[in-house]
Amino acid sequence: MSGNTFGKIFTVSTFGESHGLAIGGVVDGCPPGLELCEDDLQGDLDRRKPGTSRYTTARREEDEVKILSGVFEGKTTGTSIGLLINNTDQRSQDYSKIKDAFRPGHADYTYQQKFGFRDYRGGGRSSARETAVRVAAGGIAKKYLKQIYGIEVRGYLSQLGPIAIDCVDHSVTNTNPFFCPDETKLEALDAYMRDLKKEGNSIGAKVSVSAVNVPVGLGEPVFDRLDAEIAHAMMGINAVKGVELGDGFDVVTQKGTDHRDQMSPEGFHSNHSGGVLGGISTGQEILVHMALKPTSSISISGETIDADGKSADIITKGRHDPCVGIRAVPIAEAMLALVLMDHLLRHRAQNAGIVSPTPVIPAQR
Amino acid sequence: MSGNTFGKIFTVSTFGESHGLAIGGVVDGCPPGLELCEDDLQGDLDRRKPGTSRYTTARREEDEVKILSGVFEGKTTGTSIGLLINNTDQRSQDYSKIKDAFRPGHADYTYQQKFGFRDYRGGGRSSARETAVRVAAGGIAKKYLKQIYGIEVRGYLSQLGPIAIDCVDHSVTNTNPFFCPDETKLEALDAYMRDLKKEGNSIGAKVSVSAVNVPVGLGEPVFDRLDAEIAHAMMGINAVKGVELGDGFDVVTQKGTDHRDQMSPEGFHSNHSGGVLGGISTGQEILVHMALKPTSSISISGETIDADGKSADIITKGRHDPCVGIRAVPIAEAMLALVLMDHLLRHRAQNAGIVSPTPVIPAQR
Amino acid sequence: MSGNTFGKIFTVSTFGESHGLAIGGVVDGCPPGLELCEDDLQGDLDRRKPGTSRYTTARREEDEVKILSGVFEGKTTGTSIGLLINNTDQRSQDYSKIKDAFRPGHADYTYQQKFGFRDYRGGGRSSARETAVRVAAGGIAKKYLKQIYGIEVRGYLSQLGPIAIDCVDHSVTNTNPFFCPDETKLEALDAYMRDLKKEGNSIGAKVSVSAVNVPVGLGEPVFDRLDAEIAHAMMGINAVKGVELGDGFDVVTQKGTDHRDQMSPEGFHSNHSGGVLGGISTGQEILVHMALKPTSSISISGETIDADGKSADIITKGRHDPCVGIRAVPIAEAMLALVLMDHLLRHRAQNAGIVSPTPVIPAQR
Amino acid sequence: MSGNTFGKIFTVSTFGESHGLAIGGVVDGCPPGLELCEDDLQGDLDRRKPGTSRYTTARREEDEVKILSGVFEGKTTGTSIGLLINNTDQRSQDYSKIKDAFRPGHADYTYQQKFGFRDYRGGGRSSARETAVRVAAGGIAKKYLKQIYGIEVRGYLSQLGPIAIDCVDHSVTNTNPFFCPDETKLEALDAYMRDLKKEGNSIGAKVSVSAVNVPVGLGEPVFDRLDAEIAHAMMGINAVKGVELGDGFDVVTQKGTDHRDQMSPEGFHSNHSGGVLGGISTGQEILVHMALKPTSSISISGETIDADGKSADIITKGRHDPCVGIRAVPIAEAMLALVLMDHLLRHRAQNAGIVSPTPVIPAQR
């Protein structure tokens, strides 16, 4: 229980269901003195927001966040920050048909079995709707990291079904509805999604997220390594089934001579590690990849059971994204920012005292 | 900080360095009444132990665990369990040469930068030596899970470099030094490792671990999902760079119709999810894969820097495993057992009250 | 940091300042299936509410709580519960004069020094206004404890300045504005407060809170003893300077033969311990006392300093309780309920397994 | 469960029973670079140690602490510190008679009921023997606080039965077996204890502990206030039944004009608050008092029940302190040091960033 809080000393506790009155949360541990207003958070909320393109759910939510506390005269006070986002466009009637049957590939069955009872409207708490609060909270972390440490957290779509995408240009990512950093792939993506929609099916995706200017030294051995907590954060995003740091699963076939990132006075020669060694940041770019499954909310009939265990067929109507991976980009950024923020404060707590090492090689992207 | 504790209500706090006097820890939250003695834990410690085959480090440790508290007249009392393993075969002199240089691909540089100071003997706290305590602690969880719930946790080597291995027969796994569940692959593994040793190089590996008879309902939405905590646990094992649940990265190219695990009164038709939906166990087999990098401790010279940032060459002598992935099998099992144990107790705390659901479909392997 | 969360597995995270837009919080870990609506919480909020008598602050707040999530079709779902109370009657202009001076006996100076910056309006986060959220969250715990275990948590005023009050009749407590369980003391209390108001001064108080029908066995050795966590909870209430269990400070002059609660097959002969032995509940009444200081917000001028460290005089205007202890009664009840709820779930997690002891003596009030 | 860890980011996890093989623990989060050796901890262990005077238990334990990890070349490395103290003088046979009966006033009954099973030898985990580990861990905190911040933590006996003791001179405290800071009271104490021993009875005590040079700003609103965590720590010491900060229960009869600590440019005029306002340290002396009950282990027969609920008489033989309060002095110091250390690091985490306030009045004792 108590699974609704993330972080150890920079913490986010969230609440809210897909079709409740509102979603929101409490951000605790934010340093005082940070200039902060709703506009700082709204940008990422808009990026995550449903209804922004024809390839995401048609549900329209304003996702307008309100900061209810913790900010005074435009600056954080160091006390807890209350966040609230009202739900405005719930069409609960859409879900009445799935009240008594478990959608395959969804949390319906597991919630019912865990709690003996479930809010079936739009998946209730298991809906990705709650991630809006993560994005808002992550926005606070992002601002602090950027302003005080120059850290930048940036995500992008790195694969959609069969279409692999290289990170050609970060500045392109936010100019298209796919968060695709390679303009030459946009047409193919568009065509693929059009066909998919016609088919009534959905598709998996790979999302990548990176952070630059992360100081060397973040991460706590042995269990709370930076990479372990990143994996926790990313695998906790709806639909994620795999997480990689740096070379990820490619290391299986690498030899020691291939993988080890050699060093010279100018810095590391390579970044196979993804910016983490021994669970601690190296000062290089933190590079994370994750795999997101195709949503099971599709209009092709599937076999399932009802609440009595009897056989049933189901078509998931409602308004759903054919590729949930796309909208995960700002969520993954938010989660990475939350992990970095928590670890920055944790590092600072223990290491502000006797010794103050200076990096012996330059920070690297 | 305080990264040395794992779990929320079944917790393990560990201490110890590669070349210190001893390693050990505190296991807190174990239910009372469990029959427990050192022998219950020694088996897995022996499986993890160095010096057991010619393909693992030649360091010989007895790894004899002592239970110092929490057990009375052969049963756990419900109070904290103290574990101690003495270090017996340290050859610290081996490491004097690396005192002033950072081994590439190791935690030397990051520890030095984080703490301003490091125990360079054998990697100090960053050495995989500390995982012996995890294995001992995991043994307690394993015994409880098996005895009270019939849950079995089993790992195996699923790939070594280019050699992929299917889980043909779990009973074969512990009969060979590779934890390989397919006897037909043993010769190839042996040949590959022989060549590798000659070359003085190392190789990556893929390790898989599964749990059967896990009740439906374990996992806490939204941040402490079962899969998120498994990812945390596995990515926190030394050398792991990627973690997958079920189909993992294969989902990127799957369609919704491929991935969704349909259900009938007899149960699920498939297990693409790896036994977790919405972050909660489905009652199916929990299936986890992880990628382990090739160790950077190899006898082929590499470029690095010394503590003053000056260029240096390094050959890592000492006694090292050419494939650290192999010995990770019992460690991965221990970590999965720790996660399941913690979540079992967490689930029990919240759900022992008003509602007691019975699964509507049979538990499945 | 992150001091705004209470509890370990039944947790409450709160936000909000005296003069912000709203106060609220997240209650996590509530078992599913509990019937719950706003009315269940409103009663205690009304008891705590300012403006209910001429001896409490004249500030009028509706303190109308909204449950934003975690309840579906009238029952808790097992997911996090969002609580919101709008602030309606802020008169921030009252506080403009204290913007640049530190009120003696208040948190003004310490907040300014801790955070370098403070929301001076009504004490900001340090105001007792935030306790409304505790009362709402405690109401959830109270309902569960009562309904599932028959546990009753009841507080009362046990002393106001020189007027000591015995717990003559719990049913009288809520029939008067003093939470006084002895009707014969009401006139004296009324007279005392009238004089005090004329004087422009304030007075300390002693508040007591008890719980009956608590099962034997709650409390976790060695640091999270039930009494230790109760002390944590009570000392964390604004203005509390002392906490006692059972005989409290009287034990200093007791001998072993005086204090030890002897037992017979009918139960304990006495309850000097206050219902806790070795940090674990005995099944007897849990009895807690606390001392609350007189508020420093009085209309008699005092010496202080301003933000530049220069000498200044201050009279605290605004609307304040001459005895803050009175309104602490429902707050203390809420905190005791939160501690018991958390420990009940923690106990359940560990002890639902192998052994299920039955008390060998009857539960006792 | 998991009650055996204290602290949030400077944590201590302990294990061990009165008559087990050893007691010990893990200290996590200690900043790197602190010079530390066993001798730094042994002094306080010797102060706490049984067998040092004729008024404490005759059990003789060397209480020799070993540091097993986390220190390299005489300095802390920033990784977890393993502590071990072997038990050497257990006479378990002494306890065979109490195996089947519950000693009144002890944890025997509650442990049996909680866990269904108990280690009856010397109270098992409920014995004050475990506090030796707290003293060792607290010694680490004490050294850091003293060396880096100049903070001094000092305890003393402030009352024994009817004999009240003023803190005349801290330097006298450690020169007598009573931890009494007033030499003129030694004869009376000696006489009182002699009579008590003859009687076969025990007596309660009041212990006080203070800290000077604590920086302004420690403590986390709203639940983890410094005073709330101090109360948690102190009420968690065996036999403590009451805790006070500053004027404590005297505030009940104080008026606002009596209690408020007025300020001038030279500092506070008084310290009724005990150095904590709004849960945050003021920079003044932190002053804490606690009441310790008389031990129930006395040689005067008492009425109790056996494991079957039948009536029984009991005389507690074994070797026991007639006043357990005396030896609590170093334990209370250790716990206060642990709280301050944890809060110092927590404060540093959040407040090392944008704003760095300078106290506007001088620090005060």
Automatic annotation (TrEMBL), chains A, B, C, D:
It catalyses: 5-O-(1-carboxyvinyl)-3-phosphoshikimate = chorismate + phosphate. GO terms for molecular function: chorismate synthase activity. Pathway: Metabolic intermediate biosynthesis; chorismate biosynthesis; chorismate from D-erythrose 4-phosphate and phosphoenolpyruvate: step 7/7. FMN binds at R125, S126, S127, N238, A239, G278, K293, P294, T295, S296, S297, R319. NADP(+) binds at R48, R54. The keyword Cytoplasm does not apply. InterPro entries: Chorismate_synth, Chorismate_synth_AroC_sf, Chorismate_synthase_CS. Its EC number is 4.2.3.5. It is an enzyme of class 4 (lyase). Reduced FMN (FMNH(2)). PANTHER family: CHORISMATE SYNTHASE. Belongs to the chorismate synthase family. Homotetramer. This is Chorismate synthase. It comes from Glaciecola siphonariae.
